[in-house]
Protein: DinB family protein
Amino acid sequence: MDVKTLLLQQWASCLDEEDWFPPLEKVLEDITFEQAIWKPVVGAHSIWELVCHLLFYEKRFLLRFLLRFLDETTNEPQAENNESTFQLPTETLENWKETKQEYFYVHRELGKILAKSEHEDLYRQIPGEDNSLVLELKSLALHDAYHIGQIVFLSKMQGAWAGKRSF
Structure:
């Protein structure tokens, strides 16, 4: 199996294809607004905050990738520090739905870039980045899997996790 195929499988398993862990689309489909903002203890992150964190890094990478290769400047997402990437928009049901949809969209767009990339594109250093496309997407997929596990745990703590699932 080539690295592109492996990475495409890894990328899909984070969003919508079942593997060793549940894909985020399935995990979030029945999460209510109240469950999304719930925190088990002070200082912990909510499900929604974790999705915002994942979205921040994927959106930043997508914008950097697209616009730097087009030799354009961008107003990419900025964060004072890692903790600020968990910041929520105004807490409304509509904003919760929009955050999920934006994450799904950005994740799919990155997958499309990967799918269209030629072998040499995968290993070319991205302008302004320390790594190539393949290394950045590998890291993002591992980052997603880590936080998906946290989201699953938070949903289990709230009783939102179905007793029987196919994964």
In short: The chain has a mean pLDDT of 87.
